[in-house]
Design goal:
Layout lengths: L2 H23 L15 H33 L2 H4 L17 H16 L3 H6 L3 H21 L11 H6 L3 H18 L6 H20 L2 H9 L2 H24 L18 H17 L6 H4 L26 E4 L12 E4 L1 H15 L2 H13 L15 H23 L6 H9 L3 H17 L9
Antiparallel strand pairs: 1-2
Helix pairs in contact: 4-9, 6-8, 6-9, 10-16, 11-12, 11-14, 11-16, 12-14, 15-16
Amino acid sequence: MSSGELRRRTASKILRDTSESELSDGGYTETDEKPPEKENPKEHSKGDKKLAKIVKRLVFGTLLLFMLCGIIAAGHLWTLFFVRTAGFELARPYPRMVVLIQVAMFRELVNVRYSLRRFKEIPLFRTSQWGWFYACLIFSYGQSFKGPGRAQLIQSQLILSLLPYLDVVSLMLYSLLLVGTVLTLRSGLYKYQMGQLAWTISIVVITVVQVHSFSANVLAGLFWFLFPVSLVICNDSMAYFCGMGFGRKFIKRPFLGALSPNKTWEGFIGGGICTVVFAFITPPFYPTALICPCEELKLLGGWVFRHSCEMPSTFTPHVYVLPGWLPGWLLPASVTLLPIQLHALVLGLFASLVAPFGGFFASGIKRAYNLDDFASIIPGHGGVYDRVDCQLIMGLATQTYYATFIQGSLLSAKIVVQLALALPEEERLVVFESLGAALKKQGYVLPAIR
């Protein structure tokens, strides 16, 4: 090999090595400074969209919170269904917050399985669906106001006159809907129509049967409506923040798999702990007006915060003696708490362990029908059902727990007086004389009737 050829091969090898180095290092040696990497416009746009979504959720979430506080401040009847109309002797029934939420939820869930083509082929398709809903709604609210002393809350004489016939009216509506549904069945569409009927009944259970407990909660005191709502809000918010901060850092295993891929064990556990602490701390800060049952406020006008009542025993301080086996150097011999704080621990556990599965159930429906949200009525939050999916089972649990462990007797002295005053004059006299005779046997003396 000649010296000239050797020099050519050596130069070629040097150029080839330099070319490979430039390809791997972007054309710069280790001692040279590399230019800054260019930002990916897609990643930048994605980050901006995420930030805008968070801001939108915060803004409209805050507006919803203030709206809820305003409705709560207006009182029990505004929160539910009836309100007296100024200038009219007979009150008119107006749908308020709970009823509007029920209507919105039913509409969203009905639309999940809506088919325009089938809708045109089936007579009274929408009418029958809404008929089943309103028939159950009438029966649900009627049962709520048929309890002892509850009828006195209604100012409309027409509704009061129909209330004793609630069961008959409900039976007539059910019979009419049953006959109408059968008459609308069409050959070739039986399977689809039966599927739609089953779906309608299912969402009636979700939107009416579960929400029936909200009526009892509101009438027992706005605390029993607002407190469980706040527990779910706390759990949802803290699970989100705990998931963002600690998600998949301690537990790699997915929480619910494909059903809700963004949920993590850290978020579920962290949200639960924060909710239980929140449940224990917050009850003493509720004002008296929110604790008063509805019979204390029904004859009073204006905002709820102007009124007061005798504080129930559940909300009065009680001294609890701690067990002797607890270390005395760490804990005192006794503590003073409100009994509601201990009850709140149970409700907080339920809000942490069970209520979130109402949201997971809603996620299952959306996965089944390829939906992102049930509607877009609330910017950044989706539909109404997207916001209250966990609230439904929580309200039902609160009503059940209250009726079992807190309420006690269904009758109070105030309700007994209201029932007696609702009787005709002759029957009132019989009640008074019977009560006087019973008390006389026990050694009490009542003043004579003038």
